[in-house]
Give the backbone structure.
Amino acid sequence: MDLPLNPPVKPMLAKAATKLPTGDGLLYEPKWDGFRCIVFRDGDEVELGSRNERPLTRYFPEVVEAVKAHLPERCVVDGEIVVPAGDRLHFEALLQRIHPAESRVKLLAEQTPASFVAFDLLALGDESLVDRPFGERRRLLQTALAGTRPPVYLTAVTEDADTAQRWFDTFEGAGLDGVVAKSPALPYGPDQRLMTKVKHVRTADCVVAGFRWHKSGPIVGSLLLGLYDSAGGKVGGLQHIGVAASFPMARRAELVEELEPYRAQALDGHPWQDWANAQVQENGENRMPGAVSRWNAKKDLSWVPLRPELVVEIKYDQLEGRRLRHTGQFLRWRPDREPLSCTYDQLDVPVRYDLAEVLETP
């Protein structure tokens, strides 16, 4: 492969904001919820680079073929690999695509084929475009992808803040993640947070049913969170929905003392006492904290059970099925809440939106 930019190249990143920025001729795009991917194509040679610089090429053979069919002969394109399923994106199906067995990779490529959504052009032919302003790169990308067909898409873009706000309010129902704002004068800065992203933020009251130790020593690494299927906890039991982490180191040490009283006889009648035998189903249902990590089979996922009596308020962005997509953020303890009152009913469910309308917006 002999391109103006050869792999690996780290993607340009975004800093988080709580509301949509305006002014200065900003350009807005939907924030796609998939695997960030920089595509390198030099004729029949294609490599799919990831955010952590580990190639995704072997996991998405159908995307490789789509790149050969629809992208310019020699180019470097930044975008997102997504898995459409019905009227929305299916992130859980995308996660399942990372599998070590080649036979499984081929089967999943047929059963849950992925698409590529392009949103930046880093090189074309023999020329690197990273020093060009984004407004120019976007125009060149539109020309380069003119007439492209699924499963390769060109992301929508708008200069209108009201339209971007509407996207933010409605596109989540199609499985998207928010809105990204970029200056049209912006050069491409690998591994630099030069864009702005606005994501949905919500809160929930969750049961703390255990914790994991931090890798650096006997301090708390993360709190294991659960929700009941219904009030009273009689239907389906306590479902493990994810974790709260990212505590300062001093706070991790304090948590050891705060949680100590809840460790006594914690496994007696604990709703997750059979976690060691739990299996992760294809749809992500009934997850328990002892399940093997799909990213690292050797990762220590052992945990310390706590009597499910503590309630914590967390901040989160969205769900994937019945669990948190990303790590929750600890806000405060809720001694005024009964654990059995912490159910899925409190969670905000986005209004459904047809993914096809998002993909066809340009």
About this structure: The chain is about 15% helix and 35% strand. The two ends are 32 Å apart (CA to CA).
